[in-house]
UniProtKB/TrEMBL annotation:
Residues 258-268 have a biased composition (Basic and acidic residues). Belongs to the FRG1 family. Residues 9-23 have a biased composition (Basic residues). This is Actin-crosslinking protein. It is found in: Nucleus, Nucleolus. Keywords: Nucleus. The keyword Nucleotide-binding does not apply.
Length: 289
């Protein structure tokens, strides 16, 4: 290795592939000319371990990187496993290459202390943020807005509702309907609080998840939509319903001409199910009279 080469300090996770750097076009309009289907295909080809932005709250799951666009340096939410405390860490300390300017939206974690593991009950809008290092402590907030990360079990104070904002940033609302925020205190230092009433600059965070979990969320949504669609478009089998509720004699349906006319009219008027139920009740009544 030559003396002028700088060794990269970027954090690499197990299974992550090394990617070659490519120069961007100066005009920045190349993506605009690419058809949507082609862009979708490119997104599907992205490495599963790549850090990406979530597009909806249900995509926020698995290893998660949370950082705030503070000035002069953006800061990340870190967990100190020695003290069991949340630490606001300046990301500019993690520049992997000399004189390299990294866009805010392109930031990725450089240390496992910056990674939180998001879990949720299936179908629930709330999430739990557990530290990725140490014994796994949950991020919590009490009624006074004090944020901590020293609890081993999850409860109401460990629940957060992510809110996706129009610009793609995320706000986190706690069980008291207050927002997580970065607040400046005396002396110019920053601290994390959870008692903000409204979403402003201090309450907006960039969130990164791994691409494989985003795709997992998409697959679950497709299955859910397909299932709901099948239930919503299910049709009534008139002959089968008649045979089930009105048949006797080796499964032979016995329906009078008048009944057929009534059922046909009910079908036109959109009340077939009601007519069939009435027919079934009538048959039962006739049998026991």
């Amino acid at each position: 290795m030559s003396s002028g080469q700088v060794r990269s300090m970027k954090l690499k996770f197990k299974g992550e592939k090394t990617k070659k750097r490519r120069k961007r076009e100066e005009d920045g309009d190349e993506d605009a000319a690419v058809p949507k289907r082609t862009r979708q295909r490119k997104e599907d080809d992205v490495d599963p371990e790549t850090w990406v932005l979530p597009e909806n709250p249900m995509e926020i799951r698995g290893p998660t990187f949370i950082y705030h666009p503070s000035d002069p340096s953006p800061i990340s939410l870190n967990f100190n496993s020695t003290t069991n405390r949340v630490v606001l860490h300046a990301l500019d300390k993690d520049k992997s290459e000399v004189n390299e300017e990294v866009r805010l939206i392109d930031r990725t974690p450089a240390d496992v202390a910056q990674v939180w593991v998001v879990t949720r009950v299936a179908g629930s809008p709330t999430i739990n943020l557990r530290s990725g290092t140490g014994e796994g402590k949950f991020l919590s907030c009490d009624a006074h807005g004090i944020v901590s990360a020293d609890r081993d079990a999850r409860g109401p104070q460990e629940e957060w509702t992510p809110v996706v904002l129009p610009d793609g940033m995320i706000a986190f609302m706690n069980i008291y309907e207050k927002y997580l925020s970065v607040d400046e205190v005396a002396g110019g230092s920053l601290q994390l609080r959870g008692d903000s009433e409204n979403v402003g600059f201090g309450e907006r965070f960039w969130v990164k998840i791994q691409n494989k979990y985003k795709k997992e969320a998409h697959e679950e949504e497709k299955k859910k939509s397909l299932k709901e669609g099948m239930v919503g478009t299910s049709r009534i089998d008139e002959a089968g319903t008649n045979r089930l509720h009105q048949a006797w004699g080796a499964g032979r349906s016995v329906v009078s001409s008048q009944d057929k006319r009534e059922l046909k009219q009910a079908k036109k008027e959109g009340r077939l199910q009601e007519a069939l139920l009435d027919r079934r009740a009538k048959l039962k009544s006739d049998r026991f009279c």
